[in-house]
Amino acid sequence: MKIDILTLFPNMFDGFLNESIIKRAISKKLVEINIHNIRYYSKDPHKKVDDYGYGGGAGMVLMPQPIFDAVDDLRTDDCKVILMTPQGEKYNQNMAYKFSNYKHLIIICGHYEGFDERIRNIVDIEISIGDYVLTGGEIPAMVVSDSIIRLIDGVIKEDSHLNDSFNNNLLDYPEYTHPSDFRGMKVPDILLSGHHANIEKWRLEEQIKRTKERRPDLLEKR
Ligand code: ADE
Q: Which sequence positions are flagged as catalytic?
């Protein structure tokens, strides 16, 4: 899979690309991620990328020209163009699964007060990562990319994400590691029993109990 990210702040991605699982996925060539500075595509002599909005109002608006040119340059036959915006469809794990099957994504990070409305014409999907407003689309682009990349075959062990919270609309079961007694807080006996069928049954019961308590809305979707 290839992910092209269009941003005004490429350095924000340094940590994301150079640590942990994402770094390993890149070096194993399971994913190619390219960060593109929108300013590079500006045809303005001063490399301007934003301007005052028509009709007045606070803040600068991202101009269409650099974004249109960047997408024209990067587009392939089999690609989806995603715009990060708080006005988009609310992101979830099912969308992550769907996107992990795409060959090529172009992700546009919005910034400042907004972007020219005409940019929407070249976008396939608008995504919000939640009902709050961030300073830009960079963190949302990392959230979406991370959630997709970990689902690509070979990036993490398959059974690590088969039990993820949200699969089957259930939250994950509780996990414990050593020691079995920490400051008087004991690991449930069933997990020490070695009885796999009983452990599986207990885990499913815990998943249902936890989802009922914390996210009853998910149970309704089941
Ligand atoms: N840009 C600013 N806030 C955002 C959000 N919640 N989701 C996606 N993009 C954004």
A: 86, 113, 150, 164
The ligand 1 site (C-beta within 6 Å) comprises: 84-86, 110, 128-130, 132-134, 136-137, 140
CATH class of 2-157: alpha beta
In the chain, count H helices and then E strands: 9, 10
Q: Each residue of 45-89: pLDDT tens digit?
A: 999 999 999 999 888 999 999 999 999 999 999 999 999 999 999
Taking the CA of residue 84 as reference, the ligand 1 atom at the shortest distance is: 9
Give residue 96's pLDDT band: very low, low, confident or very high (50, 70, 90).
very high
Task: Kindly report the pTM of this predicted structure.
Answer: 0.94
Quick one: which of 54, 48, 3 has its CA closest to 26? 3
Give per-residue pLDDT as tens, 139-188.
999 999 999 999 999 999 877 777 787 878 999 999 999 999 999 999 99
What is the per-residue burial (b if ≥16 Cβ within 10 Å, else e) of 184-201? Answer: eeebeeebeeeeeeebee
Q: Which CATH number fits domain 163-219: 1.10.3720.10, 3.40.30.10, 3.30.230.10, 1.10.1270.20?
A: 1.10.1270.20
Instruction: For residue 86, report the distance from its CA to the centre of ligand 1, in Å.
Output: 4
Instruction: Considering the chain, tell me which residue range(s) the CATH 1.10.1270.20 domain(s) occupy.
Output: 163-219
Of the pLDDT bands very low, low, confident and very high (cuts 50, 70, 90), residue 112 is: low
Rounded CA-CA distance 210/216 in Å is 9
State which of 111, 129, 135 you would mutate to test the pocket of ligand 1, scoring each by most atoms of that ligand within 8 A of its C-beta: 129
